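Entry 12.
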Amino acid sequence: MADVLVDLVAVAEREIGRRWLTGTWSVAQEHAATHVSELVVGTVAARHSGPADRGHVVMACVEGEWHALAARIVAEVVRAAGWRATFLAAGVPARHLVSYLLAAAIRVGDPQLLLDFVGWQDRVFSARGGRPLLDAVLASCETALAEHPRACHHLRLARSMAGPA
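Predicted 3D structure (tokens):
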């Protein structure tokens, strides 16, 4: 599966993007060609059926990012490698992504899921000169998800696992 998705579809998408960037193709032509790539990804993914026993991966494109095909390809490749993959598609607002991850962490009883996501976000924004996100994200989760009986417990665990601020 990875051979088809990475070596064929991703390579074709680079060429499609190049043609759009150079003005050889219009936006409509680029969208039509990308739709064919999306159909290929869906068809190849539908043919794969294997155990998902290596863990859970959540893939999404953040708010404002509407180009989701590369993330979908990654999700399908990791699914084929034995992971349970959830693809949330394009334009997912950060607060919704965090809420989804918190709910997933609660469902499986693992606050590390939320901590891994927030830690990754924190490293990205710190590298760009931003402020640490962990406390802000966890505080907003406490407010938004206070009604869930285990939300505060998991948020406290994630904070304690992160160590002192």
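Annotation: Residues 27-47 form the longest helix (21 residues). The helical segments are 2-21, 27-47, 69-80, 94-108, 112-127, 134-144, 151-162.
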